[in-house]
Amino acid sequence: MRGSGRTRTSMALMKHEALERGRALPVLRGIVAVTLLLSVFLPAGMFAQQAEQVLPVTEYKIGSKDLLEITVFNLTELNQTVRVSEDGSISLKLLGRVEVAGLTAQDLEKKLAELLDQQYTKNARVTVFVKEFQKVAVLGAVGRPGMYELVGPTTILQIISQAGGLTAQAMNELYVLRQGTDGTKTRISINLEELAKGNQELDVLLLPKDEVFVPIDQLRNVFVYGEVRNPGTISFLQSKSITLLQAIAQAGGPTEWAKRTRVVIKRKDRKTGKEMKIPVNLKKLISGRTSDIMLEEGDVVIVP
User: Fold this and answer.
1) How many alpha carbons lie under 13 Å from residue 12 in its C-beta half-sphere?
2) Considering Cα of 109, then 113, then 114, then 119, what sign does the dihedral take?
3) Where residue 244 sits, what CATH number does that domain have?
4) Which of 101, 114, 206, 293 is the least buried, fewest Cβ under 10 Å from its Cβ?
5) Which of 73, 103, 132 is the last residue in one of the domains?
6) Model-level pTM greater than 0.70?
7) Closest to 95 in 3D by CA, of 125, 74, 75, 120
8) Pure H helices in 163-230
């Protein structure tokens, strides 16, 4: 009977520890869930719908800064690799300046063949290969920040996937900085949680020179000392607030000797720099008779 009692006690302890571990999951859990959704472009059915909307690469429209490789069959002297200028044109041997912005590679092949047929040869066969596409910048809390080519129409979800997905420190919003024709930049805010839920209106089509910025969620610290089981530093993310009860719970909770009615929060006034002392009756907080207190970066909680 004694052995059976010990077994039941051990099982109860194991269940209690499992429950505590579940409660102590990092606050990043929601962000990681968003990352996983983004990495697979949301549920399979939704991705299939997205794929239907994406134009094939053959319909990619040439723009400024693209690098084009132009080959003329049996006229190797006309073969050139040229970069599209800011005004959307290229300069070719014999033909001179040619407007190319807004054309697909196939459109440009036909246009160059027609120009050559009119002036120099008949039945010209021209191929155009876009070696370097227009690019966007992806910065901040992504796996591989950097410059990415727009190979055909590309959306937010697709570019984040190419950049390695979101890191655990990604905030819940990203911004697309877009340059207008007058040189000024506008900011488009996109809620990642809503995007991950399937709001396709937020999965905007990117334009050349867009800057996609995913803010990095900064770690903040408060300190809990005195009669708690695990005194020390409690870290939390900037986007996630932390309350007094949460901080004390993360510090292991009060010991049996704690004077729960005499807890003090030490806080520096942001304007004057002077230290303030906020007295707290922890018993009233726990019972719900008073509201929990939101802690700020650098707060020191003393549980006497």
Assistant:
1) 6
2) positive
3) 3.10.560.10
4) 114
5) 132
6) no
7) 120
8) 192-196
